[in-house]
Amino acid sequence: MQYLFSIPKLIPLYSLLLAFLLTFISIPSLVDVARAKHLYDVPNGRTSHKENTPTLGGMAIFAGFIISTMIFLYIPDIPYIQYVIAGIIIVYFIGLKDDVIAIAPMTKFIGQLFAATIIIDLGDIRLSGLYGLFGITDIGYYGSDFLTLFVIIAIVNAFNLIDGIDGLAAGVGILASLTFGGWFYLTAHVSPEHIQLAIMASAMIGSLLAFSWFNLYSKKHKIFMGDIGSLLLGFVMSILAIKFNDLNFALGHAPLRVSAAPAVSIGILIVPIYDTIRVFVVRLYHGRSPFSADREHVHHYLVDLTGSHKKVTFIMLTFNVLFIAISLLLSDLRIYQLTLILLTLAAILSSIPYFMIRKKRKSQFITV
To answer: Which region, left, alpha or beta, applies to residue 252 given φ > 0 means left and ψ of -120 to 50 means alpha?
Structure first.
């Protein structure tokens, strides 16, 4: 074992492999437990699946991620990890209760606030400012608190909202972890903290890859990640995004610094971020609560058009890769310029399936 740890740059790979193995081994047993205890996601008018499906996949993701992370992380290089783990455990139990017995949205929200406050005020994981957006850098301690809290809650719930079809939330999580983790890995020479964050990202990739196999391809042990998985995924992604921004700002004018890091973060997480903004606007426009349930997500339109979860997931992940590439290629632009480009492009592309489904429904109505 000492030999393994003697090559630090290989540790993210070990983290990925262990997380994959632990998650892969765990899922069949969880499926058996879910069936025995009737812990299913039952199809209804809004869901895209047609059979009762176990929802405890998040437990396996949690186990693979936590165990692998705690084995391979060198804690002195990342002292705030104790607060990260505390926050993750809180999020885990919120998701667990919601997967087993539905909880009130306000209770869920309060739990998220508590978990976020722990990592912000005790772990000091925060967005230290606006990083030059509109010429503003410093926003003060309380401004930083509020901004970071908003970003964490927004990303956590954005991932929760896009977890509506097979493979989508996990796929976005893999792409985001790969991009954030890749940057941490490439800048590992700057600070020991960077390689530790790369290990965290790698553990998440491993867990999500194993989960995705069962979620997308297994008939005998098909499983959903449930609220445990989507809330955990959003929470970890928010931490990686915050550290990506803050550590980029700390690099000064180093060669690997990403100038428009906040905008690049939006590009990396464009699928959950833009889809959440869009459905909130649509619901408010129609006089409904932004938290009401419906089938107004882009992935719902695409499922209605294609009839296939896998096709829709492939389409949306392809566009996610496109946005990541655009974000990195145009990262020398000003933050507001790149953000405007990304949101405009997202608005144009997301409107295509909306108008296609409207045209399809209209033609069906005329035919009838």
So the answer is: left
User: Residue type for 21, please?
Assistant: L
CA-based nearest residue to 155, from 115, 210, 199, 182: 115
Q: To 10 degrees, the CA torsion angle through 56, 60, 66, 69?
A: -150
CA–CA distance, 160 with 169 (Å, rounded to integer): 8
**How remote is the C-alpha of 132 from its chain's centroid?**
25
Closest by Cα among 67, 20, 27, 21 to 226: 27
Q: Which tens digits make up the pLDDT trace of 75-115?
A: 999 999 999 999 999 999 999 999 888 888 899 999 999 99
40-41/129-133 β-pairing? unpaired
- pLDDT at position 218 over 60: yes
Q: Which residues pair with residue 129 across a beta bridge?
A: 138
pTM score > 0.85 for this model?
yes
Cα–Cα distance measured from residue 248 to residue 265, given in angstroms and rounded to the nearest whole number: 11
φ, ψ for residue 41, nearest 5 deg: -95, 110
Residue 1 DSSP one-character state: -
Half-sphere exposure for 206 (CA within 13 Å, toward CB): 29
DSSP letters, 130-146, are EEEETTEEE-HHHHHHH
Query: Predicted confidence band at 276 (pLDDT cuts at 50, 70, 90)?
Result: very high
C-alpha span between 117 and 91 (Å, rounded): 12
Asked if residues 169 and 57 have their Cβ atoms less than 8 Å apart, the reply is: no
Helices within 140-225 (DSSP H only): 140-162, 168-186, 192-217
Of residues 155, 157, 164, the one with CA closest to residue 312: 164
DSSP helix/strand/coil, 275:
helix
Asked if the model's pLDDT at residue 362 lies above 80, the reply is no
Q: How many CB atoms lie within 10 A of CB 116?
A: 25
With 0-12 CB in 10 A as exposed, 13-18 as middle and 19+ as buried, what is 359? exposed
